[in-house]
Amino acid sequence: MVLQISDDARVRTLTLDRAEALNAFDEALYDATTDALLAAAEDPDVAVVLLTGAGRAFSAGTDLLEMHQRATDPDFVPGRHGFVGLVDALAAFPKPLVVAVNGVGLGIGTTVLGFADLAFMASTARLKCPFTSLGVAPEAASSYLLPRLVGRQQAAWLLLSAEWITATEALAMGLVWKVCEPEDLLDEAHRHAALLAARPISSLVAVKRTMTAPLRAGVEAARELENAAFAELMGGPANLEALTAFAEGREADFTSLPPGW
């Protein structure tokens, strides 16, 4: 089992559970999380979804060993939903989504915050958008949602630098709503989720729809641009160097790439 699912007070908690891999998303976890979001969207007894991680990580992003296999193995078999399906489900999710970042969050472990209605973060957690260090492009409409969430220059630093962001920095820039001590994080996030879940689901859905509907065209346009750029760069010299270095346990060296890379 790669995803724990539990219900309490009309709040469905989804806990990413590949702790041995820092909850990195492989195809199985992408599929399980997508299926869980789709089911929660349709379940009349679920008012709010709370997303968090098991162990010491929230999510280390896409599983890089599997990404390396996907980039180099022509026989690789993707999942039913994959990354694109998860982002589809996040973008269309009609009910409040609360995210509790309990530990490190990389890639989708950070960009998911663009779809969060409320985000809580442990004081010891850290976030990173590692796209340039992997030789790829942004994802999950982050090129559109993050500037709206934190401002252009903060978003530019997040997306261009591939540097870590602390909980204090994430709170100051507006990437998360509240920072909690690690032992208090889940209780505090669930308390707020349950407060929302006590409201009429029809009203919650209406409020979220009116907030997100004006953004849909921008999200779709950003995703198209990002997906095209990602497809162009994945498997290219910079990406292969980054993935090979990760598989070999060394730092990537981009200094010998062809001109323009």
TrEMBL record:
Instruction: Write the lineage as a comma-separated list.
Output: Bacteria, Bacillati, Actinomycetota, Actinomycetes, Propionibacteriales
Pfam families, sorted = ECH_1 (PF00378)
Q: Which UniProt keywords apply?
A: Isomerase, Peroxisome
Q: Entry's SUPFAM superfamilies?
A: ClpP/crotonase
- Tell me where on the tree of life, at the top rank, the source sits: Bacteria
Protein name, as recorded = Enoyl-CoA hydratase/isomerase family protein
Task: Indicate where this protein resides in the cell.
Answer: Peroxisome
